[in-house]
Amino acid sequence: MARLWAHVGRTGLFAPGVLDRCNAHLARIRAAYAWDEVNSVSSHNDSLPANILFDGNRLWMIDWESAYRTDPLVDLAIVGDSLARTPELESILHRAWLGRRLDEARRARLAHVRALSLPSSQRPHAPAGSRPARRRPSMCWARCSSPRS
User: By 3-state DSSP, what share of the chain in percent is helix, strand and coil, each rounded to 5?
Assistant: First the structure.
């Protein structure tokens, strides 16, 4: 993530100072979120409803160009933000993924992973008319790039 963000900053596409709030936000997240290379897993990283197909017998995941090894909670965060838009559905998703409720440590880590994820409604390929993803108040990629009120 740090290498990608550094590249974005070097592109020259943004006026000086435009990314300062995002840089500060990313620095806070990185300070709180410890990367764990040993426990990284293969991840789709774009598991939106448009990339999950059902043929009547099985589920198929398509559109794998964003796949790489990452935190095991990344796909859970993306699916949760896309499909589990109530606390009840979120709880069902978490139990299905882990086999039990998330403990506080995993719940806190999931919040950090979500903070690093761009909401699906802001991705270029979001379906027209899709609802904005439900976000926690601390998730502010959209806010960090918008003008201050």
Answer: 50, 10, 45
Backbone angles phi, psi at 108, to 5 degrees: -65, -40
Which alpha helices (H) appear in 33-103, and where do they start and end? Answer: 73-83, 87-98
pLDDT for 51-77, tens place per residue?
999 999 999 999 999 898 999 999 999
Claim: this prediction has a pTM higher than 0.85? no
What does the alpha-carbon distance between residue 136 and residue 139 come to, in Å, rounded to a whole number? 5
Amino acid letter, residue 144: C
What distance in Å separates the CA atoms of residue 118 and residue 103, rounded to the nearest whole number? 24
* C-alpha distances in Å from residue 79, one per residue of 24, 25, 61, 83: 27, 23, 12, 6
Nearest-10 Cα torsion for 138, 43, 83, 27: 10
